[in-house]
Amino acid sequence: MSDNNATIELKEITKDFKNTKVIDQLNLKVAAGEFLVLLGPSGCGKSTTLRMIAGLESVSNGEVLIDGDDLKKKANDGHTIAMVFQDYALYPNMTVYQNLEYALKVHKVAKDERQKRLESILETLNLSDYRDRLPSELSGGQKQRVALGRGMAKKSKIFLLDEPLSNIDVQLREKARDEIQSLHDRNKQTIVYVTHDQLEAMALGDRIAVMNDGIIQMVDTPENIYKNPTNLFVAKFIGTPQINVLPVWYQDGYLTMDETKLVKLDRINSIDPKDYLLGVRPEHIKVSKNSESEFSVPTKVTKIVDYGRYIQLTLDLNGQHVIKAVTKDIDCKIDDTVFIRIDERTSIIFDKDSQKNIYWDRV
Amino acid sequence: MNRKKNALWHLPLMIIGIIALLPVVFMISNSFKTLQESYQSILSLIPNKPTTINYTTLNHQVNLARLAWNTFFMATLVTLGKLFTGLLAAYAFRYYQFKHKNLIYLLFVATIFVPFTIVMIPNYLVIAKLNLLNSVIGVALPQLCDATGIMIFLKTMEKIPGSLFDSLKIDDIPNRRIFFNIVLPILKPSIISVGAMFFINSWNEYVWPTLILKDKSSFTLPLALQNYISSEGGTNFPLAMALSSIMIVVPLIIYLIFQRYILNSISNSGLK
After folding, report:
1. Are residues B86 and B135 in the same domain?
2. Which residue of chain A has the CA closest to B161?
3. d(Cα B139, Cα B130) in Å, to the nearest integer?
4. Chain B positions in Cβ-Cβ contact with residue A91 (cut-off 8 Å)
5. Domain limits at B20?
6. Which helix (H) or strand (E) holds A52?
7. Which of A250, A295, B7, B222 could form a disulfide with B206 if both were Cys (CB 3.0 to 4.6 A apart)?
8. Entry pTM
9. ipTM
10. pLDDT tens-digit map of A136-179
11. B-chain residues within 8 Å CB-CB of A78?
């Protein structure tokens, strides 16, 4: 606990809309000064969760604690929480400066202090030249910066951002992302950031909470989420191109597919002999022109896309499975036969029924 | 192609415009005719010998300033009342969540479809009991609320995104401030156009004021006009036209001042 940030704790939160459960028994702790990203597909309940932290949405069951205190005492006191909305929610009748100043004025922050804060915010966000413009006279990126500035002006302990970058051009997005990042580095506020964009989540979050169907699937650092996802949903949601998933069978230390041995398992000595799903990221598929070991599998090249930095291959295995592979350089043409090899260390095995990462239960 | 289409549209529009303008020209031209001339050639649009006699006669016969003031006072009171209640009610419907909100709103809107003739007698009895007969306040009182205003203002307020209200809630801005600093400025164009509509309607109102106002000193312009058309003193057509011409001056001025807003809010209701 400190002056410029606060902890957030969600305890057994449930949210019903009419008769459907939108959020089911959600637990989440956000440390003071942490940058947490809520990531998930649309309709997964991430925005609802954020709105419950903001006190905009009531909680059907459970508790929201800010610095250990019930939210009701803290929320809407005008300075604990600031929020930036997807559509910016700027006051259309006020200039940029008035937009930033309004809440401070209402809460009787002294004029000198107001000016000092706002000048520095306008400076950092490159808005000094636009201070007297109305929101309707600004571009999307500028509006987004004003919305960000309005949140900053409050010097709140908690900063909530609801898909703040989804309405601006791709070219501007990276710059805006850097701005948010440096804002966090400077002010050390506790930030909860909602997005459906996995790249944004990976770039910004200290930790990412991946949500689906109102349930948090996994909360961890971006690296762990990428390398060691708890289940198939998380694995598929993170990473482009998407992780390859192959149906396999375990027998006597080998994962086999259609009678072909794909991987020898050393990390795990015995699992039940049954169906599993083998997940391999495209960059972990080793592609070569010749068969290099007994585990090399021949595939046919069906598509080649050269992105400059890397080449993305679409491969056809036995006419049944499509595999995406990413490689630095390979000299091949469409319809060529190439060999792929899967490494145990970089592959993830999911239980076919529960879709859970089996390493997760064991390690 | 487009131009040609536009030109084609101009012809019917011009005809409609002329038809709409004709009664006004007719009224003004007859107000400058003598009684005799108006009997002889009522349809001629340009008086043979234009005369201001009707206006001077009017000025002698009635207290024009008094009539205009009564009408203005009543119309202003009704307009402000309707705007005030309409805006507050619409804000409540937009901002708050409460039980049976839709049903209550529906009941409000349903009052628009209750004909005046049904509430005329009960309203009259209430005003009589309150001892407000013969006063402009008595005319204004039952009209201070109007569901039309609530409906139009709510429709406009619904265009304000919910996130704007959420943002204000998080910043703990009191309701009074949200209403005056944010909602009213955003609604300004529709307030002006709806206000102008209320004012002009009330300015022209006839039936209800005749029931309440008996004393000539409290008459409004439409009531005074009735005297020149009905039996009392016989129908003096040019005089009636002169009074009518005077009557339309105020609505015309209001329209000219605010026409930018009125047109604006018809084509789009203020928010982007």
Report:
1. yes
2. A89
3. 12
4. 164, 182
5. 1-51
6. helix A46-54
7. B222
8. 0.81
9. 0.82
10. 999 888 999 999 999 989 889 999 999 998 888 888 888 888 88
11. 171-172
Mutation target among A17, A66, A74, A83 for the B interface, most CBs of B within 10 A: A83
B217 lies in the same domain as B98: yes
Q: What angle do CA B107, B108, B111 make, to 5 degrees?
A: 90
Per-chain mean pLDDT for chain A? 89
Residues B198 and B94 both lie in one domain: yes
pLDDT band of B263, cuts 50, 70, 90: low
Q: Is A188 left (phi over 0), alpha (psi -120 to 50) or beta?
A: left
B7, part of any domain: yes
Whether residue B103 sits in one domain with residue B195: yes
Residue B137 domain-assigned (yes or no): yes
Choose the mutation target among B97, B159, B160, B167 for the interface with A, i.e. most A CBs under 10 Å.
Answer: B167
Domains of chain A: 8-237 (3.40.50.300), 244-362 (2.40.50.140)
**CA angle at residue A47 from A43 to A52, to 5 degrees?**
130
Same domain, B134 and B222: yes
Residue B4 has pLDDT above 90, yes or no: no
Structural domain count of chain B: 2
Q: State the Cα–Cα distance between residues A71 and A107, nearest whole angstrom.
A: 20
**pLDDT tens-digit series, residues A202-223:** 999 999 999 999 999 999 999 9
B163/A85 CB distance under 8 A? yes
- Domain-embedded: residue B272: no
Taking one residue from A and the other from B, the number of pairs with CB-CB distance under 8 angstroms is 54
Give A312's strand partners: A305, A326
Of the two residues A272 and A164, the one the predictor is more confident about is: A164
What is the nearest CA distance from A53 to chain B, expressed in angstroms? 11
- At residue A1, the 3 state secondary structure works out as coil
